[in-house]
Design goal:
Blueprint: H1 8-27, H2 39-50, H3 65-78, H4 84-104, H5 110-125, H6 142-162, H7 173-187, H8 191-206, H9 211-232, H10 237-254, H11 263-280, H12 294-315, H13 323-337, H14 350-381, H15 413-430, E1 437-440, H16 446-450, H17 476-480, E2 485-489, H18 499-519, E3 520-525, E4 529-534
Parallel strand pairs: 1-2
Antiparallel strand pairs: 2-4, 3-4
Helix pairs in contact: 1-4, 1-5, 1-14, 2-3, 3-4, 4-5, 4-6, 5-6, 5-13, 5-14, 6-7, 6-8, 6-12, 6-13, 7-8, 7-9, 8-12, 11-12, 11-13, 11-14, 12-13, 13-14
Amino acid sequence: MRLPTLPRSDWFTIAAVALAAAMAAFVGMPVLGVFEHDVFFSLANAYRVSQGQIPHRDFASAWGPVFFLIQAGGLVISGMRPAGLAYANALFGAVVALWTYLAVRTRLRAVLACSLGIYSVLLVTAPFPLGFNPLAFSYAMAYNRYGYALLGIILVECGLQALQPTAGKRPGAGRAVSIGIAWALLAFLKVTYAMVALPFVLIWLWCAAGRGRRFAGLCAGFGIVALILLAYLRFDLADMFRDLAEAASGRGLTWRPWSIFSPAFLIESVPLLLLAAVATAGLGEPLAAGALPRPVRLWLFVLLTVSVGGFLLSTNHQAMSLPLDGFAAVVLLDGVLARRGKLDADPPGRPLAVFLSVLCFLPLTAMNAASLATAWWERHRGVETMAVRVASPRGASLIFGPVESSMTSESGGPAYAEVLNDGLELIRTRTEPGAGVTTIDMFNPFNYLLGRPSPRGGMAAAAYNYAFSDAAHPGGDRFFGDARYVLVRKYNKSAGDFAIENYHIQGLLRTYQPVLDRDFVPIQETTHWTLWRRK
């Protein structure tokens, strides 16, 4: 059987993406070193979805269904093992990376197109939270990696169109459909990413002729995906908008707009701004009537990239790192290199442009690659640890490493594993087999760990002043749903609990204690938990 004839760049990209995805799948569930509790955001909610529960309808969620559906697919493939999260990341990373590459393979130099494909797959599959230590493994906030990768597709399309000469080739309708699909996935992944994608979409529509055809393609791509996902949600728009409004109320109380002016953000933004200055040097063209000069379009694109990166940095739980700069830098560099054929000598600033592009692109790429390679090596070697494991068949592979810093953990380390084991034993001894529980805690790991049906109700993440607030939150009946048992977390500083845990617990109790007292009765108390049963 002969392989299809493809350019070497295609084979190289396919091989690199496949290698990164295979490594990510092999890593499975690494030894967790930061935000360990956040692994249950994915496991518990994907488990709910695999049982047929629907976000917004059966449980409140500040996130759309896309992330949970992808993670649920990974769990099904893995036989409901925690390693399913790695399988989901590997599959999604490969799809998005090849999608990104196909979007640019005929418009960028081969090496740059390959670089974007590799950048995307590493962005999705690297096993650490963006902005933190790449060797402290965790799948916490992986939805942000998904969001940046999808937004990168829209950003690249916008940048290429912004740098296109006024009389250049009109973009095909297929690109418009691709942008619409990416935008719709963002809208049902995490709505803030869809919001910041809107200016890029408008620039893309504005910067060339044929707007009607491109707008129709955009609406077709967006509409098809949105219709499928809305059908999955049973067109329950009321609950979806209510969840998003409650999350907006809570997030507004802890939003950090001043982080845009942090030294880390300013330092990371400098190379891209300098690259924009180099890229605009000597850039000009005869203008059509009413057309914006290319230098103006380029700066508009770059300033928007920097502003969006800063905004997302301020809304995410993300200390540093601007993934969008890498996408933008590749587009700008290709524009500089494209001028070489029009001049007898190299274009002015070409070496500087390459250097600045590397500064924008390489640091995050290297961190993602180092994290994935190190996690793969540790899995290959079978590194042992003295940390406590979770005492359930599904949790046996969950290993909580020592807490590195209280600044980057809310529930973690061996102390958190002991909390989980204490709750598991309480449920086993005081509830009937097959009975699920709801928790008053940030996450609810127990139904997944015990393989029991998840009660309807609760929240995807009960993060106080993030997913809900005193002013806006699910009602008591919706929160407790059809749960027969409620497990209430007790803050215990002497046992190693973090103060931030008490912050979330007290926020939940202020909101739901009256309904808890009205409908439930306490039946057992341990060091870390109190078990309540419905009256």
